[in-house]
Amino acid sequence: MSTRFRNNLFAGLFVLIFLVGVAHSADPIVTNSTSNSTVTTSTDAKSTIRTNPPSAISPSINASNSDLCMVGVSGAVQTQILGISTGQAYSDENCMRLKNAKVLYDMGMKVAAVALMCQTRSVYDSMKFAGTPCPINNPVTGEGLIGKEATAEWRLNPKKIPKKQPASNMNRGVFLEKLVGGIIGVILLAILVI
User: Fold this and answer.
1) Are strands 70-78 and 83-91 parallel, antiparallel or unpaired?
2) C-alpha 129: how far from its chain's center?
3) Which of 3, 64, 134, 188 has the most C-beta neighbours closer than 10 Å?
């Protein structure tokens, strides 16, 4: 089972359990009883028992520092029977690339910063269209090439050109994986509620 499928399954399950938990919020339990005795005593009693609200507390993931390239995601779901909470931090590769390139540039390593940014196809294409090709490593000498020498080396090694990113982040397989995960989550929730 892929990590993405498992995360989507848990997320679907958590959302559905939360919705059912809200729909079945803690209603007071009301008990009415009446007893009659032959001694002419009559008693009418009413008891109301209120329960504390259920509480599932999601973990706190601090990503408020602007120098981090992390995004924190957490959630919790609680019903009268079961409470679940989870959390995870995800790193943003593009953010890390931008920060590393900025540090290299600030240290005076401008070509290294450009080479790092050229690992994405959009930057590679924009540099090519501007007439300043991305730096490339010479496979024979191991030295970095820039300018016309880099253009010639890129023509000799087109396999080194970064791959284009798909226009859509979600292909058919990912969509079906999320759909199946959501359906399984709904089924598990229905079993839990019933």
Assistant:
1) antiparallel
2) 35
3) 134
List the one residue out of 36, 16, 37, 35 whose CA is nearest residue 181: 16
Query: Tens digit of pLDDT for each residue in 105-134?
Result: 999 999 899 999 988 888 988 888 988 899
Q: Following CA atoms 140, 132, 125, 130 in sequence, which dihedral angle do they give, to the nearest 10 degrees? A: -170
3 state DSSP class of 60: coil
Beta-ladder partners of 42? 36
Residues 143-176 pLDDT 10s:
888 888 888 888 888 888 888 876 555 566 667 7
Q: Provide the 8-state DSSP code for 158.
A: G
C-alpha 175/C-alpha 184 separation (Å) is: 14
Helices (H), 24-134: 93-106, 110-117, 121-129
Q: Helix 110-117 vs helix 93-106: angle between axes, to the nearest 10 degrees?
A: 170
Measure Cα distances from 34 to 40, 41, 44, 48, 55 in Å: 13, 11, 5, 15, 35
- Tell which residue, 95, 76, 96, has the closest CA to residue 86: 76
The region that residue 10 occupies, defined by phi over 0 for left and psi between -120 and 50 for alpha, beta otherwise, is alpha
Please tell me the predicted confidence (pLDDT) of residue 187: 81
Q: Whole-structure pTM over 0.85, yes or no?
A: no
| Rounded Cα–Cα distance for residues 10 and 17 (Å) | 10
